[in-house]
Amino acid sequence: MPRGIIASLVHLSQQPSVASTRLIAAHNDKGYGFLIDDQKQQIYFSHEMVVGHQGFDLLRQGMLVDFVRDSSPYLCATSVQQVPAESREKADGVEPDERA
C-alpha cells in the first residue's frame, strides 16, 4: 500500500452542531484534502475515503498515511488511513523503545 504525507486539509463543517440535524456532534467533520506521494504527486481525497468512524477528524497536516490509488484517470485516493505509530518508527529505523 503506498504511503503519502498530508499536504493540506479543508474542513467544511467547523460550525457547532445543531440538535435537529442527523449529524453526530462528536464526529461530524466533512471536507477534503491533498496528500503527496513518494513520487511528489499531489493526490486528492474526500472525507468519505478516510477509514474509520472518526477518520477525517483525526487527520492533521504533515501526517503520514497509507492509501490506495483510485483507478480513475485523475489522481484520487481511496482507503486513506493513518499509519500506526509502530510502523512509522520502523520506517524511520528506530525501534519504539529507543525513542526518548
Outline the structure in words.
- This protein is mainly beta.
- The protein has one domain: Beta Barrel (OB fold (Dihydrolipoamide Acetyltransferase, E2P)).
- 12% of the residues lie in helices and 33% in strands.
- The protein has a 5-stranded antiparallel beta sheet with strand order 3-2-1-4-5, with no helix packed on it.
- The C terminus is likely disordered.
- This is CSD domain-containing protein.
Poorly predicted parts: 93-100
Can you count the helices?
2
Cα distance spanning the termini? 29 Å
Q: What number is the mean pLDDT?
A: 77
How do the strands line up in the largest sheet? Answer: 3-2-1-4-5
The quaternary state of the protein chains shown equals: single chain
Total number of distinct structural domains: 1
Number of strands: 5
User: Class in CATH?
Assistant: Mainly Beta
Throw out a few tags for this protein.
100 residues; mainly beta; five-stranded antiparallel β-sheet; 5 strands; 12% helix; disordered C terminus
List the helices and strands and how they pair.
Elements: E1 3-11, E2 31-37, E3 42-46, H1 55-58, E4 64-69, E5 77-82, H2 85-92
Antiparallel strand pairs: 1-2, 1-4, 2-3, 4-5
Give a brief description.
This is CSD domain-containing protein. Helix content is 12%, strand content 33%.
